[in-house]
Specification:
The chain is mainly alpha-helical and 864 residues long. Helices cover 59% and strands 4% of the residues. β2, α8 and β3 form a beta-alpha-beta unit. The N terminus is likely disordered.
Length: 864
Amino acid sequence: MSSTTPHDPGLESFRGSRKERAGKVSEAASGGRRSTKPEFQLFVDWIWNALAGSSVRSRNALAQVSGYPKTFVYDVFDGRQFPTLEQARDLAQCLRCSSDSIEEIWHKVKAGRAAHGRTPGAWDPFLLGVHKSIEPADDDSESVLTDYVERQHDQVLRDLIGEPGHNVLAVVTGNACTGKTRTALESLKVCLPAWPLVCPIDSVELAELVASRSLQPQTVLWLDEMQVYLQGADGERAAAAVRRVLAKCESIVVIGTMWISHWDLLTSQDKASGDYLYPGAAQLLNSAVRINVPDSFSGDQEALALLETLSSGDSRLAAARAAAELDGKVTQVLAGGVELVNRYEHPHDEYGALAITAAMDIRRLGHYHPIPRRLLEKAVTNSLTPAQRVTSREWLADAIKFATTSVRGVRAVNPQRDTAGVGSADSYVLHDYLDQYARQTRWRFPGHIGLWQALAEHESSQDDRERLADEAGSRALFRLETILLRPLADAKNPKAIRNLAIRLFRAGHHDAAIELVQSGSSGSGDNLESLLMDFLKVDERWEDLLEVLKAKAERGSYDAIAEIGIIYEKAGELEGAARWLDRASPEGENNSTALRHMAKIEERNGRLQTAISLLRQGIAQSDCQAVRELMELLERHGRIAEAESVIYNEAIGCSCYDELAELGNLQIRAGVLHDRVEWWRNLMVQGDFHEQEMARHILIKFIKDPATCRESVAFYRKRIEDLRQIMSGRFTRDHLGLLDAQLNAGSAYELLDELTALAVDGDLSAMEAVADILLSMNRSREAEAWLNIANNKGSPTAWMKMAAFLNDSGRTEDAVGWLGSACLAGHNALENLVQLLRTVGRLADADRLWAFGLEPDGRIADPW
């Protein structure tokens, strides 16, 4: 580093400098980029001034010199993260500033961060996340907000927060640019105008704010783009912090906003286990009052009348009113979203449209931070066709100019400059509306190979690289996934090591996978150690496996002791197995794995009651596998009634849904299903979601008996009628049951008109059901059309039905192509495609596909 004399920006010399940065850090919607919090502005101005006066050229260079991650340095400069005093001193030292100066600034900012926010009306709405309106057509002045047009959902929210005698958690959901954030802000200005509004920048600051216990009664906690706080490494901590606020503070209103798709993701459950994917977030959101903002003004006559009144004095509202007459999308017009889409879909510069497409794809595939200029330029260049490469020398600059041109105050891609000093843009942020537009219209496209190459070569943040790798893996782009994972694995990221090792092992690189896991495992019972043991089992490296297990056993792991016993059991050494398994389950430590295997040994030795007793001990530990094994043991010995009783009494209590399905199979094998059908129907009515789904699948098997079809039709007809008012005419699993019954009875055509009406209204399940009916009527072309529509609209299962239909019709190559497209679209279709290739004799292709995946153009990847 240069040895220039230390300089001191001081407290006064920088005031008013870098005005263009004050509160104007671009926001990347739903990806974590936010405007600088005013309380941080003093520190942000100081550090920018310090950088400008130092010999350090840029924030990237500062990150390199200081040893801090680039993302941390960027976040500090943009006011998204406040450093600790030690971190601030380190940065000041690298910038050759006196420690006294940085400490004075740091303490001033720290003191100003007490949780006493400004009132809702005193905040700049754009800092809180409200979208700027399009500029008036007859005015070049900076865009300001239009008058607010209240809608029906506004009153719902105001009723909730108007007289809060208790704590409130409200989440306003909707699609992009529907007015979520402004709905929340306007309600606060009306109902709680004097309450301070506190706006933490990220999940870390949110948790720190709660831990400080400085939130006062009658405070609003503002969480715009709430998913930013609830996802990522600190998401669970943030969710717990909000729950703690609601439980321990008095008179607190927590108000958040998010896209509907983010709500669905954060409250989604694993299909196999039923566990929430984001348990902390799901628990929090399930306790919230959700206010949904509709996409359009259609049907809200009072709002439309108010809009017409206000539009006479504002050309922007007049344009929005004209849009309302077409599709009701008023807020989207005001935010400029509709105009941006029209300009993108009908561009006068094809290269400019390519630049916007590249930005959209980079964002939707997982790169949430602002897009560096070099990355965008490379992605656009790599995606050109041979014909498009023949162009003028200035084509790239013109393309970027088209993408960043302001149209009535809004841009498709917003330019910003992260490097110190004035100059051209060095990064870009995609407009929120185009982000959602891309996710809705381009979800099937895996991205151009050139785009992925640019992403793989770019030095992304850890979070971005993880998301990109996950996206590549979900689309069967295994080669690209491994390239993206490698730097993360080299940095000892446990998730990356695990995923890369699994991919290498599947590709046949067993030694490399095992070595990678060994290098990353702490050897203290972590997930990587479990993966290592799985690899060693597959390779039958029993000595190595026993070495790992005995080390775990010495650390007191009863599971490891049980695993050692299982190895002896499989080797036929039952005496040794019994000794180890007995050690694995001492008094007070009922290890269910050990109990199950001890039961197998006892059954082999003819001690049936002892085996049953051991399995019941495992069931007491909520072990679903013990439920299944006890049922199978009793069935083997002809004790069918007892086997049924195990499921009746244990499976439901333990949430053992797969074992519940086995009960139905047991009853079919025993020929007693017909006598038990009423029990299944009661479960269909009274059970939880998973129990109802299992009951439906068992009842399908009952339906296949021609003698019971009409009875089943009557049952489902009554169910649908009873639920009609509650379900508002929506397609339900009862429709599926009715369809199954009538297909088996040969009368599915009776449902065609009813289900077609639901399909026309956009119900994806109804579309697939209509296709099933049409196929039963030999109207295959119409069925194919409906499956195409359902697939194009994002149905998660239409691809499977379409592939089966094509294959059954003798169009095997079309089915292969369809499944390949489904893989690239992110559907879990790889196993289906591999199985089909095996069925038609393409064994080598099937093996290569399973091991190495696909390329973005649909080719099976070469070995790597």
